[in-house]
Amino acid sequence: MPRLFIFLDTNTFLHYVSLDQIDWIDFIEAKDIVLVIAPVVIRELNKHKDFPRTPKMRERASTALQKLAAWSRTPSPIIIRNSVELQFQFHDPSIDFTAKNLLRDVADDYLIATIIEHQSEHS
User: Fold this and answer.
1) N or C: which end of the chain has fewer CB within 10 A?
2) pLDDT tens track for 7-60
3) Cα distance between residue 120 and residue 116, in whole Å
4) What is the DSSP code (8-state) at residue 83?
């Protein structure tokens, strides 16, 4: 079975337990998983930290950013659970947003563009 790449959304960090507390292998039913953090997720977490709707959102975003920062300083591969690797995407997608009917001012479209670019680079 090939590696399964999972691109995480900001809400994963704001509404659920920490990534390393999730049994990804059982939950996804895969044998080798790579969790990918796109730059837009870091930007969105910073926005929730700096301009939160609630104090709880500020706390969740801040905690997530601290944990992600610690993991980013870990030598690769970053293994957060058995058979679960964490990877950071360090650049925004360079695909043509318009050609894919995506909008540059929509955070979810940046995540979709990141996934599309990843697919084209890692067929």
Assistant:
1) C
2) 999 999 999 999 999 999 999 989 999 999 999 999 999 999 999 999 999 999
3) 6
4) T
55 and 4 Cβ atoms separated by less than 8 Å: no
End-to-end Cα, the chain, rounded Å: 15
Select from 77, 87, 94, 114 the least CA-distant residue to 19: 87
Entry pTM: 0.93
Bridge partners (DSSP) listed for residue 35: 6, 86
Would you call 34 helix, strand, or coil by DSSP? strand
Q: The dihedral of CA 31, 75, 39, 12: what is its sign?
A: positive
Region label for 83, one of left (φ > 0), alpha (ψ between -120 and 50) or beta (otherwise): left
Q: Which residue has the tokens 């926005």?
A: 47
